[in-house]
Amino acid sequence: MERIYPYYGAVSIVDYVDDFIFDGEYLLLSEDGIYVVDENGHPLLQHITGKFWANNHAHILKGKSGFNEDSLYLFLANTNMAPIVTGAAQPKINQANLKSFSITIPTSEVIENFNALIQPFFDQRLSNEAEVKKLESLKDLLLSRLVN
């Protein structure tokens, strides 16, 4: 089988596999390892769209309560989560601590307006990523023709 689906770890793609367990838009929040939060306490996040597999070193998140994945990404990326990190040698955000993390949720009107405001930027990001994939394929095709 063809290994075409990204296999994500805590902070990046670590391999490609021949099957997927997720299909859609998700956030992956680093669970453990050297890079759980940055120097400001902001969590390390991956904003994923499409078919993929994720290992057990990432929390898989979906938006709810009006937050879509885009607004949740921006919210979490700007939130100090250092208080829920445990472990000295191996920093970790465990599921219990993540679920106990309290946040103030804006009104549904504020969230809806924010979602509408940021949507064009995230749509452009997806468009740019698709264009990069096309250009990489074209580069590979042209290089193979040049070499042969």
UniProtKB/TrEMBL annotation:
Domain Type I restriction modification DNA specificity stretches: 5-110
Lineage: Bacteria, Bacillati, Bacillota, Clostridia, Christensenellales
Protein name, as recorded: Type I restriction modification DNA specificity domain-containing protein
UniProt KW keywords: DNA-binding, Restriction system
A single BP term in Gene Ontology: DNA restriction-modification system
InterPro entries: Restrct_endonuc_typeI_TRD, Restrct_endonuc_typeI_TRD_sf, Type-I_RS_S_subunit
Family: Belongs to the type-I restriction system S methylase family.
Any Pfam family the entry gives: Methylase_S
SUPFAM superfamilies in alphabetical order: DNA methylase specificity domain
This protein's record includes keyword Ion transport: no
Keyword DNA-binding: yes
Gene3D superfamilies: DNA methylase specificity domains (3.90.220.20)
One Gene Ontology term of the molecular function aspect: DNA binding
Top-rank taxon: Bacteria
